[in-house]
Amino acid sequence: MDIAALQTRNSAHWKKATAIRALTLDAVAAAKSGHSGMPMGMADVATVLFEKHLKFDASTPKWPDRDRFILSAGHGSMLIYSLLHLLGDAQVTLDEIRNFRQLGAKTAGHPENFLLDAVETTTGPLGQGISNAVGFAMAEEIQRAHYGRKVVDHHTYVIAGDGCLMEGISQEAIGLAGRHQLGKLIAFWDNNNITIDGEVGLSDRTDQVKRFKASGWHVQEIDGHDPDAIDAAINAAKKSKKPSMIACKTHIALGHAAQDTAKGHGALTDMDQLAAAKKAYGWPHGPFEIPADIKAEWEEIGRKGAAQRQAWQARFDTLSAQRQAQFNRAYACEVPKKLASVVRALKRQVSESKPKIATRKSSEMTLEVINPIMPETVGGSADLTGSNNTLTGDMGVFDVDNRKGRYIYWGIREHGMAAAMNGMGLHGGIRPYGGTFMCFTDYARPAMRLAALSKVPTVFVMTHDSIGLGEDGPTHQPVEHLAISRATPNTLVFRPADTVETAESWEIALNQKATPSVLSLTRQSLPTVRVEHKMKNLTAQGAYVLAEAEGKRQAILIATGSEVSVAMAARDMLQAEGIGTRVVSMPCMELFAQQEEGYRRRILPAGPVRVGVEAGVQMGWDRWLLGERGREAKAGFIGMNSFGASAPAEALFEHFGITADAVVAKVNDLL
Amino acid sequence: MDIAALQTRNSAHWKKATAIRALTLDAVAAAKSGHSGMPMGMADVATVLFEKHLKFDASTPKWPDRDRFILSAGHGSMLIYSLLHLLGDAQVTLDEIRNFRQLGAKTAGHPENFLLDAVETTTGPLGQGISNAVGFAMAEEIQRAHYGRKVVDHHTYVIAGDGCLMEGISQEAIGLAGRHQLGKLIAFWDNNNITIDGEVGLSDRTDQVKRFKASGWHVQEIDGHDPDAIDAAINAAKKSKKPSMIACKTHIALGHAAQDTAKGHGALTDMDQLAAAKKAYGWPHGPFEIPADIKAEWEEIGRKGAAQRQAWQARFDTLSAQRQAQFNRAYACEVPKKLASVVRALKRQVSESKPKIATRKSSEMTLEVINPIMPETVGGSADLTGSNNTLTGDMGVFDVDNRKGRYIYWGIREHGMAAAMNGMGLHGGIRPYGGTFMCFTDYARPAMRLAALSKVPTVFVMTHDSIGLGEDGPTHQPVEHLAISRATPNTLVFRPADTVETAESWEIALNQKATPSVLSLTRQSLPTVRVEHKMKNLTAQGAYVLAEAEGKRQAILIATGSEVSVAMAARDMLQAEGIGTRVVSMPCMELFAQQEEGYRRRILPAGPVRVGVEAGVQMGWDRWLLGERGREAKAGFIGMNSFGASAPAEALFEHFGITADAVVAKVNDLL
Description:
2 copies of one chain form a homodimer.
Chain A: H1 3-9, H2 11-31, H3 37-53, E1 68-71, H4 77-87, H5 94-98, H6 128-147, E2 156-160, H7 162-166, H8 169-179, E3 185-191, E4 194-195, E5 198-199, H9 208-214, E6 218-223, H10 227-239, E7 244-249, H11 271-281, H12 292-303, H13 306-317, H14 321-331, H15 338-353, E8 357-358, H16 359-370, E9 377-381, H17 385-388, E10 407-409, H18 414-427, E11 431-437, H19 441-453, E12 459-463, H20 481-487, E13 492-494, H21 499-511, E14 517-520, E15 525-526, E16 544-547, E17 553-559, H22 562-576, E18 580-585, H23 589-594, H24 597-603, E19 609-613, H25 622-625, E20 635-638, H26 649-655, H27 660-670
Parallel strand pairs in A: 1-2, 2-3, 3-7, 6-7, 9-10, 9-11, 11-12, 12-14, 13-14, 17-18, 17-19, 19-20
Antiparallel strand pairs in A: 4-5, 8-15, 16-18
């Protein structure tokens, strides 16, 4: 690489880009950890993008109509931190740069949206950012259709590396973007030919240009160090009606001794080599030192969007008060006041009509009353619409010629769906939910974790939540998946017993601003157990007494979802034997754990034997059975301790011993 | 579709294919559940494949040199059951066909390798089969290189649907197969343009032909109902040195009223429509009735490989006794006798030298003694070779020009790696292991579950297993992943404390024939805690007393992995305070749970306070703390209850309170 030529050919550009490279080298060296090569390789692309194209105002990083910039190759976090510092972002001070990757710093190892306002999404696990970006771009299309171009009109830019493109999820994202002609999505591929293990060719020889074209993308190939070529490519990409991929041939760790090597991918901490690289750059400044003129130029770039933002504000102010309020409410992730009343009305109705239906159908009934009053919901399913019951009458289908459609046919892409939903939620203004079979939590899992970590209130509608799925067999029957989601921090897992609890669960899920929810719903029909209408959302306490013991309280049955009615049947039999039995419905363990001890003690007092009933593994139950005043000698569990089997549901519940008879026998054993 | 023309043009073929369609219609109708359309659409392809190409002997489904046939579109399970019944497979009787999807039947909803010998792999979760197939094909290449073409020379055929190709994992598989020029892998794409939600175009418009070509595949497009075209395409595919994809344009539910519709994808149970379809086929026979002549023709196909198998056996018998024994041992998944002695020697050496190293390095040391004596091991990493420490000196790298290489650079493809490893294990003769960061259990998760369900002893080498990962931050720090793997049935999760336990864990993992193992290994260095050499594999009991209390036993500290040395340090402090403290190392909860109660009671007696220490979530620990004679008032846990953070490891352990001081404080609180 002829660094000298780069320096002289576009010296103003070079200096700005070099500021990114120098800060990256210094921060990684100080931290003795991090990834130097990627920011050094992509500094030119980022500089041109931010200087000439990206619509943003560094003073107001959350301006709703900003262009979104997503660093899918999140390990190159110093790229974004350098940019934000140079641009004058108030949160990214020089001290933050110096503290890169240290405890308490906002400049974490990978970019985290909950630490920095200007970071759109938490990246690092590869392929997530580019898939989030699909959701960002869809959210923009939907909102633009709804509010008009004068209020919503921005691009989504994403930088992806070879790792992002090798992860399977990228294919799901590429396919979705191509199918929906997301023309305002522009992806830069950092084509540096290097991964951690060596040259890309060690593990992949895919022609990425052909691959993207096969899915309907506009593709360009450029020298990623040529600012004019970068600028021209972005201009061409903006003009295309297809999503654009710009393959940027770059040199990882440009100008460093480790350039173009796997070593260059990691932390470059050799101080002599660092000095040599800076010398090659023509950068005589000390560590963390940015000359005032270069900083000023960057800060000017950081300010250039202020006028656009003010003009946007003026346009926004012309919207009707109602539309402004709706826009602002959705961006604030607040529910409409009417939500509580429509949920209450539904609860009252079903407490009276007592339908015997599957909770996936209960969920649909709930959505039928929610979707009309929350225009910000966007639903979908990973090719199981009829099974997940996620489509309601009023939504319309999102498509190239119907951007107002609020339902998305995600295809057989649970992972891409989950990541794109996270992107929609992070974009703002949209409340995404999407369905699949609960067993395929496995496929969506990396994005479900990121929803929790990055504090997006995505709702995962997981139907067919046990062996009750029946004949499809063990590949499709979740047994460990409730435990998996419950083990995940900042995740609410709801397993409602009937339509009332399902409606309550939806109400809570939509009231979350920073926590995803998992709804665990049945395939099979369940009786209504909440036959007495209560205004109060009982699910909000996580667990409550559904049926009190008659006579002396000798047993407490704790159950969730489809097993609540099993517990109720067992209670009838136990009461008939003269054994006073309380049934506790526990639709959300996380919310119950948050209640104060007095409440928990009232629900789960010491003394009676306890039996937990759930068609899943025991993991996660011991706290409620052995702890919380429980005792090993007086506690039992009726559930699964193996994978399921293929048979009609009733036969399976019998076969695996999840029946009222088994509960009664367990109680009698323990008494 | 002109069914009449199909009937007359190739009537002998048509009758055989129609037998598949008729059995499918009858079995699904009897079960009132299942997927009729796929077998009906792909019956012609399957008939030509089995009649003219597939090398197999229905009497001996486990013949090692058979061609492998994988139904990636596993919902079409009646295709494989029909074929096996028609061919005369002894396990698939007509009663089994009649019992499709019923409790106890071998004809489960989706094909399960543990129920039927002729089913190569359990499919249903889409995209897994085609990714398993990559592993099957790699295993064949490696073994062919090792034993020669006269003993190993077979193809891997796979049928994939639109769902398989939309799942991201398929891109990982396609990329791997193309990169490694797996010329003996031949995939049929059931190009029927239908998914559950409707036409494929609802969610995808990818040009699959271009997509496969972009990754270096040989691609053909044919009419999937034309037997001559099918035959010619398979012949051409066999000649290509590239992996082959044959795009078969088919009609889902061919000949039925639901042909070419989403309804046709599911269970076709309308008896009038069923009768009409059979009439259109020219199939006047009753339910489950196969005319003797057609059955005889199919059985002849089932027998045609017998001579090939006998010839193969004769060639195999010419191998040296040693090579025969090695071949048979590896296929039986048995370890060499020397394994125990090399592990013991390593244990003795490290008990004496007491290295302070990361357990990922301990794992490498163990592999350095195992790989030379187990030529059937095949290692790899998802682009983290230097971090996972999975490559040992003697392995060689698998490549187009080095098929003997036993190390695979999987690229950034955790999911594809895991599924391909399962495929290798299922192929037989190979013991696969592969590494990634433990946090990326999430990406590999669907295939890890299938390893457990389908009883493949794959070894997942999961390094950087806690906040000890340090600066990369919470996106890369597992906190719930031990719980996730422990919640999964038929999975052994090992979290060794030092090199001795790591070696013991590997020994146990390799002795499994039907259970996958997860090795949870540290990034950071740990002291040797097993400083007294024991011949016995103590890890095999799951937990054991590492250090006994001196004086009156007041506390038991239970710890795993990197926290065992924390517990040991806490014990020193507690003993100094006069508090007799036992330390129990618990490297494998599943194995401890399998011990008889007497042993468990000796390790965890009633009485002392108990504190669990593990840098993960508490889920899964309550059994050992509150149960097994424990009591809530006397039990505590030191671990994580949130996501981690970005900082050096030492700072994080301090920040999250996972320290000897915290353990001591907890014990004092409880006493």
